[in-house]
Amino acid sequence: MRVAIVGGSGYAGGELMRLLLKHPKAEIKHVTSRKFTGKPVSIVNPNLDGLTSLKYVMPNLDVITKDVDVIFLATPHGESQNLVPALLQKGLRIIDLSADFRLKNMASHEYFYGPHACPQFCKDAVYGMPELNKDKIKDAKLIAVPGCHASSAIYGLLPVTRAGLIKPFPIIVDSKTGSTGAGSSPSEADHHPVRANVVRPYGLTGHRHTAEIEESILPNFPAAEQAELKVSFSAHAVDMVRGILSTIHVFLKNKLEDEKPLYQAFRAFIKDNPFLRLVKKQAGVFRLPDPKTIVGTNYCDLGFEVDPLSNRLVIVTALDNLVKGAAGNAVQCFNIIQGLPETTGLDHAGIFPI
Questions:
Q1: Structurally, how many domains does the chain consist of?
Q2: Domain span at residue 164?
Q3: pLDDT at position 182, please?
Q4: How would you label 268-301 residue by residue, b for 16+ Cβ within 10 Å and e otherwise?
Q5: pLDDT tens for residues 75-92?
Q6: Is the pTM of this model over 0.90?
């Protein structure tokens, strides 16, 4: 299937190219960048040197949509909403990696992102999390790939909310992320002498991914409990390039005699989802999820422990923010709309040690 990537000079766009260039059923026809128009994509992505002769082109929709079936939007937040109406009119399938069409609640969108240029399209956009919306993704015209932090939290919370095991409040998510989460544009906060060796809180309250988490898990609670749902999310920048580790604190509705109901909930969730793994070993350095082991992969690892003194359940998740948190999930959605196995072009192990 022929594809185009709009916004191909950022980190997520680069990962899309890396994955799609080796995908057996994808042919990249165009990659756009205003800044690097006419230059080889390997100028920005040196890891692709010798693997492709693609050059960046201007994002002229009339040109780049003539010979493609699917278009990936790896644009900054706020730009996709200006492109989507015209792309849908041309009959294209759209996989959008930005936040523009993730939320159904327009009041939430406006609070976190500002006014929406075409809110009428948000209703029919499908939240592109295969483990949550696989059937809806199959026929979707517009797919909104989840945020990286939101993904790390939702994957940890879906098993226990579906099983009815936890209270709707409090739900506390503490997330640590690498520097690529800030994007490819230089900033003072991400200047190497400033960023190196840090564990820096940067989004302690009001993080925009909070709304995604709440929208995704709300239907799993009984109607009488839904008004109580409140997710408290905090983010920290840490000294790594890729990866997110989320530690999620929730409280069990009932005291458990053992961990069997939790194992059942997590195993039921990962059963038909090839990129989710339960990592809960009795011993060893990597007995629980660690971002170090999933770098470059589309896996999200899940683990948990119970604090019997407080009836607190601590869930830990790890994923690569550029792959399972962005480009990899987008390719997984691409596979689903083609009727391909979800693992096509994505079933590779991580690099270790790194």
A1: 2
A2: 149-319
A3: 78
A4: ebbeebbbbbbbbeeeeeeebbbbbbbbbbbbbb
A5: 999 999 999 999 999 999
A6: yes
